Amino acid sequence: QTDTYQLYFAILQQKIKSTADRHFFCIDEELSYENFYADFGPLNLAMFYRFCCKLTKKLKSFTLAKKKIVFYTCGDNKKQANAAYLIGSYAVMHLQKTPEEAYSLLVSRNSTYLSFRDASFGTCMYNLNILDCLRAIYKALQFGWLDFSQFDVEEYEHYERAENGDFNWIIPGKFLAFSGPHPKSKIENGYPLHAPEAYFPYFRKHNITAIVRLNKKMYDAKRFTDMGFEHHDLFFVDGSTPNDAIVRKFLNICENADGAIAVHCKAGLGRTGTLIGCYMMKHYRLTAPEAIAWMRICRPGSVIGPQQNFVEDKQISLWSEGDVFREKMNEQENGKLAVTRILSGVDDITINGSNKSRMSKKEEAELYSDDEERNGITQGDKLRALKSKRQARTTTGSHVGTSNENPNENVIVVEHLVPTWTVCRQLCTPMAMGFVIPWQASGSTLLEPLRHRVARVLSGVSTF
Question: Is 53 a known active-site residue?
Answer without folding.
Answer: no
